[in-house]
Specification:
heterodimer, A: alpha/beta, TIM Barrel, Alpha-Beta Plaits, eight-stranded parallel β-barrel, four-stranded antiparallel β-sheet, 20 strands, about 30% helix, globular, B: alpha/beta, Fumarate Reductase Iron-sulfur Protein, Chain B, domain 2, FAD/NAD(P)-binding domain, 3 domains, five-stranded parallel β-sheet, 18 helices
Chain lengths: ~425, ~450
């Protein structure tokens, strides 16, 4: 069995699965239950000034009968006094000394406030700190959370203040509600953060009730934007993780967050640069026990690939993630339909006919009908294979290359050279 | 032996529960929404099945019900009685890779919604000044009536029985098709302004020539008649039933008259199955079906056969009745049968059953139910002076027009002699097509002439 232990910026954990700072990590009772269930670490729900919450506060986006494709909340940071939290953190760490216990923090952008809370929290024996510069609602209106996280200079300055006082590793949690995630990631690195975690939730409105015309959720008939998470946000999160991972100016470990629901998602995040992952929505949907399947699936995957340590996955796919200008313009694929497995639903046909390049033909041959791709007209867009409900019935095959591999950048360089010669 | 009214009611209540909302929602989401879907082609009425299912999935129940009933005015009945395994569901592309979508059940879910919510889904067209008389208020007649009403015809349906609906109202056992469903469909047609004259027998209360004189066009959709005589001694005994009449009786009012009886049903078509399962539910002690051929030749659908078996009906293959034996009061007490063997007939024809000499044996029985087919309304066809082959009215396959250019025919009156299938859904489609042909003849084509002049 592969070694699942990770070391994220010095924080040790028996496996890469942590609970993200969120409702599941609100109390010692919850975090201890999670550790018992097998979670390798937890980021304690954000400590800060006592705040008041609203009711209701969660909403979900269901898609075609599939529940909780996306999830949205307008909940704020901890609703419990600091000393109660600190007592429970102390007890939890004592009971589970080998698990990663990180505490999320959020205070006003003031140096002494940060120093004060860092000292108090580290005094109870935590493994690390996570600075919440992401929360998009409520706190932001009071200059905290994403209000700080959207300003690289504030991220850098506050990170630095924390580092002045902290003795444990400091993770900066980034908001995705920003044009270029690497700007704040670099700011965190410049502020001497030990790691970054991303993404926090995305500004969202989960829905509108068709009968009452209330927002979903609503608070006494009115609503405001919430934070979006769950499986629906995974591609956005994965891209942001990858962008940070491939940017040498960031250069610090990453804790991946955003729609991770099973071991496969976790592997994807790790391959794209995460040293470990944090999970929330999947746990809110199914409970702590899903970590069993995550650990088992990951372990079997590593064994099947002959990989001894899960940490060896980190960043392995990052070199494959690049700018469009580096893509080979001469690479081509085309769709091929396997008529033996095709069930003739014609979904590929109508998708191509209406919305792509009209290159699938319906052929009637002595009563039987089948589909065939005119490869010379196929642009290899993948749409037919995407809409095909039968695994493997449509295969995207490599076409013989028409020239040497050449990217846009190489082409521009070659043209520039030619022009210079001509000049 | 006594069977309580409550037990009877229970026995004749619809066997199959409708889909629960979540089930329907999940099932609807399983549909692939095929393009040019084979299920549509497999439906004789061409219901846009993927479309009605998609509407269930996105909670547009009104649109779903309308999509179904637009193509098939008897869509609620058909959801229950269609052999879906052989039609839509049999054609579903998911048959091999998963399991077919429960199209029939989803259709029932949508149409039940329309019934429960008392929806009026269609409106009659602006009157075009033409009138049509329809003989027979069964699926074919009602289907034609609805379409004609929507085209603006003044439509009168002449129905011999107390209620319209034909087979759906009287001929299909309640536990598969409750009468209320069929009557709702009748009501939908009536609400389009169709005059449905029940308890009116054409040929007795009104003559064929009167109908032809007082209407521009007549649609003959009279269905079929009684079960024929078997031609064996003892058919006049008390306790010999006509399967069609027996089923009809249970649709009118339930009785326990077969309670405790030993019943023998002769025949193995779907009507025989209905008669047998009805008998069981009326409290019969033992019910068996005798068929002169073997299981392979049986015309009942496989699911009907399975249903009868699960109801405890026994089957005796290669067994033909020879005579029915009565007691001193003239009541059935046994039936004498003979064992049969199958002889290969010339190619293309069914194997011919022949008796095995000396193999006669007797089954004790208190009731014998004949279910060996149905006779035709030959005299009615003759009154209209229509060309026919042994009662099967000859029609133009495209227009459903008979040998009389002012008479069209649809439904069971044109079924047989290698022509069509005896399914409710086929009759409905024929009614639709006849209605369109009439519209084309009397309005569209006539209109073209007007415009040219």
């Amino acid at each position: 069995m592969a070694d699942l232990r990770i070391n994220l910026a010095g924080i040790q954990s028996p496996n890469p699965f942590w609970l993200a700072s969120a409702p599941p990590t609100n109390t010692g009772y919850q975090v201890q239950r999670a550790f018992e269930a097998g979670w390798g670490g937890a980021v304690w729900k954000t400590l800060g000034d006592p705040i008041i919450n609203t009711s209701s506060r969660f909403a979900a986006v269901h898609f075609n009968g599939q529940r909780v494709a996306g999830f949205n909340n307008i909940e704020l940071i901890t609703d419990r006094p600091l000393d109660v939290n600190l007592k429970e953190i102390y007890e939890t760490k004592k009971r589970f000394p080998n698990h990663a216990l990180v505490v999320s923090l959020m205070v006003e952008p003031k140096r002494d406030k940060w120093h004060e809370i860092v000292k108090k929290v580290e005094a109870v024996g935590v493994d690390g700190l996570e600075l919440n510069f992401g929360c998009p609602h409520g706190m932001a209106e009071r200059g905290m959370g994403s209000a700080s996280g959207q300003q690289p200079d504030l991220v850098e300055r506050q990170t630095y203040w924390v580092k002045e006082a902290a003795r444990t590793p400091v993770i900066v949690k980034l908001t995705p509600n920003i044009t270029d995630i690497t700007a704040t990631a670099i700011a965190a690195a410049n502020g001497c953060a030990d790691a970054i975690s991303l993404i926090n939730t995305i500004n969202s409105l989960a829905g509108v009730d068709l009968d009452s015309w209330n927002t979903i959720p609503h608070v006494a008939g009115r609503g405001s934007h919430g934070g979006y998470c769950g499986p629906a946000v995974k591609p956005i999160a994965l891209n942001m993780v990858a962008e940070c991972a491939r940017n040498p100016e960031v250069g610090i470990p990453i804790s991946g967050i955003g729609g991770i629901s099973d071991w496969k998602d976790a592997v994807e995040f790790m391959l794209m640069g995460a040293a470990g992952v944090q999970v929330c929505t999947a746990v809110m949907h199914h409970g702590f026990r899903i970590v069993e399947e995550m650990i088992d699936g990951l372990s079997n995957y590593l064994d099947s690939k002959g990989i001894e340590r899960v940490s060896d996955l980190t960043g392995r796919a990052v070199p494959r993630y690049t700018d469009w200008g580096n893509l080979d313009l001469n690479y081509a694929v085309a769709a091929r339909i396997h008529t033996d497995t095709c069930i003739n639903c014609n979904k590929c046909y109508i998708a191509c006919e209406d919305t792509a390049h009209q290159c699938i033909e319906r052929i009637e041959d002595s009563g039987a009908s089948y589909l065939k791709v005119r490869e010379e007209d196929c642009v290899g867009c993948n749409l037919c294979a995407i809409v095909c409900p039968v695994e493997g019935a449509i295969e995207m095959v490599d076409l013989p290359s028409t020239g040497v591999p050449m990217s846009w950048n190489e082409r521009q360089a070659a043209l520039a050279k030619l022009n210079m010669k001509g000049a | 032996m006594f069977i309580s009214d409550d037990a009877l009611k229970r026995n004749f209540a619809e066997v199959k529960p409708g889909l629960r909302p979540k089930q329907a929602f999940e099932e609807a989401h399983r549909c692939l929404y095929c393009y040019d879907a084979p299920c549509i082609k497999a439906c004789p009425t061409g219901i846009n099945i993927p479309s009605f299912i998609k509407r269930i999935a996105n909670k547009n129940m009104l649109g779903s019900a309308r999509t179904i009933l637009e193509a098939n005015p008897m869509g609620a009945s058909c959801a229950r009685v269609c052999p879906t395994e052989e039609l839509c569901e049999g054609a579903c592309v998911l048959n091999d890779s998963s399991k077919p979508i429960l199209i029939g059940d989803l259709q029932r879910f949508a149409t039940d919604w329309a019934i429960r919510n008392n929806q009026q889904l269609f409106a009659s067209g602006e009157r075009n000044g033409r009138s049509v008389a329809i003989v027979g208020g069964g699926p074919a007649g009602l289907s034609a009536a609805r379409e004609l009403a929507r085209f603006g015809f003044a439509v009168t349906v002449f129905e011999a029985k107390a209620h319209a609906g034909g087979l759906n109202t009287y001929g299909i056992v309640s536990f598969r098709l409750p009468k209320e469903i069929a009557l709702w469909e009748v009501e939908q047609v009536r609400k389009l302004g169709v005059d449905i004259r029940t308890n009116t027998v054409v040929g007795r209360d009104v003559t064929a020539s009167e109908l032809l004189e007082s209407h521009d066009v007549v649609v003959l959709a009279a269905g079929m008649s009684k079960v024929p005589m078997m031609g064996i001694p003892g058919e006049e005994l008390e306790g010999v039933y006509d399967a069609i009449e027996l089923v009809e009786k249970t649709k009118v009012s339930l009785s326990g008259e077969l309670s405790g009886r030993r019943v023998v049903v002769v025949g193995a078509g779907n009507t025989a199955i209905d008669a047998a399962t009805c008998s069981v539910r009326m409290g019969a002690e033992h019910v068996e079906i005798c068929y002169r051929r073997s299981k392979q030749e049986m015309t009942a659908y496989e699911f009907e056969y399975e249903f009868a078996k699960s109801d405890g009906v026994a089957f005796r293959w290669l067994t033909a009745p020879v005579r029915i034996i009565g007691d001193e009061h003239g009541r059935v007490k046994a039936i004498e049968c003979v064992r049969m063997k199958l002889e290969q007939a010339e190619s293309g024809r069914r194997a011919r059953p022949v008796p095995i000499p000396g193999s006669e044996f007797t089954i004790e029985a208190d009731a014998v139910i004949k279910a060996i087919g149905q006779t035709r309304h030959v005299s009615l066809v003759d009154q209209f002076q229509l060309a026919h082959t042994r009662g099967v009215v000859t029609i133009d396959q495209e227009t459903y027009r008979t040998s009389n250019p002012n008479v069209y025919a649809a439904g069971d009156v044109i079924f047989g002699e290698g022509q069509g299938d005896a399914m409710v859904v086929s009759a409905v489609q024929q009614g639709k097509l006849a209605a369109f042909a009439i519209y084309k003849q009397l309005v569209l084509d006539a209109g073209d002439v007007d415009r040219q002049t």
